[in-house]
Design a protein that fits this description.
globular, alpha+beta, five-stranded antiparallel β-sheet
């Protein structure tokens, strides 16, 4: 688990509004290629809810692409792994897929966790041509 721990802490997503194409140059966390087959399937299951927001045919193509790219994908976290405390953060970063999930404190209700998440794609992001390889 310590291999997946990121060195920085996060209070928000890195690639939110106005941050189109500003992906970090270096991937951090644990390479999915070092995980066991069942763990790799969990990474794909974690990606799916964000991809499922598009039509079924596009989602299927995206998932096939992300599955092909899985061994070049990294998973990292900061804070805790419970995703229930301010500063808990998870990132999935592949050749294509980019997902961030962060827990913020008191944004809407003072004593409750507020979740921010973003799904982007290094090569097919909504701000560029939406094509598939």
């Amino acid at each position: 688990m310590t291999k997946a721990k990121l060195s920085a802490s996060f209070s928000d997503v890195l690639l939110g509004p106005g941050k189109d194409g500003q992906f970090p140059e270096t991937k951090e966390g644990i390479p999915v290629s070092s995980l066991k087959p069942k763990q790799k399937q969990l990474v794909l299951k974690a990606i799916h809810p964000w991809v499922a927001n598009v039509d079924d045919a596009t989602a299927k193509r995206l998932m096939k692409t992300y599955e092909r790219e899985l061994n070049q994908t990294y998973v990292g976290y900061s804070g805790g792994t419970g995703l229930d405390s301010q500063g808990d953060y998870v990132r999935i970063d592949g050749p294509g897929v980019w997902i961030e999930f962060v827990c913020q404190g008191g944004v809407v209700f003072r004593d409750q966790i507020h979740y921010h998440t973003v799904y982007r794609d290094h090569t097919r992001d909504y701000g560029s041509e939406f094509t598939f390889s």
